[in-house]
What does this fold into?
Amino acid sequence: MGNRKLLAMDLDGTILDSSGQLHEASMRVLAALRKAGHVVSYATGRREYDMVNFLYLYDHADYVVMNTGSIVEHEPSKERIFEQYVDPQTTRQLIDACNENGWQLYVIIAEGFCLNIMTEGVAEYVGRTGVQPILYTSADDFDLDRIEGFMTARDSDAILAYIRSHDLPLDYFNSEPGCYDVIPRGVSKWNGICRLAEHLGIAREDIVTMGNWLNDMEMVVNAGVGVAVADAAPELKEAADYVTERTCDEDPLLDVGRDLFHLNIQELKDR
It folds into this structure.
């Protein structure tokens, strides 16, 4: 793999351990790849507010593909290479329908996540992360031109059925058990990675992607080399070109660095 590569990695459950941390050994792998001239990017469903308690992660990447691909940002300049928002009419229709039916809907904006119905699960998340939701009562509470997407949890089945039955221009992905990210139609991690690769002049065969869950399937299947970590979903491991020996708790980047980029991982582990 002598050409310049783009390594695009999911965060949670992939290169972050089960407590959400990036280990020193993984940091050394990323530093070695960047020093060798490769481009390092995260490809995550996280949004800006999700990164508030993990700002150190920005120091170890060149780019971040966020919000399941609707935002591509250069680090550390914060220059946005690409951004796509939900159509305002679609936003209003979905918020109105959820309020009328008593469905819980998360609305994602740059400043944080907004919520129409509080639950115990939300309170637990706030207690764990310190990220407070912004409560809303109607679509009029928002700048409808700047809605990044939505998330569903408690009422996913009803909301997703509504989206399908009304043919709203939205796609949705199972981001974790019981939760769905809802984003503008045509947006995905893989499409965000492709926009970044085009911006950098990197060919598809020189893209390496790395994931653990079903929302990583498209980017793992379509990349030049698609990687699944050892404890990834079985379907993803079956579809991947390469499966690491190590789980997310064991620095799977060491396997990727050794086998796909020919790094001396013993040196990186022992340093």
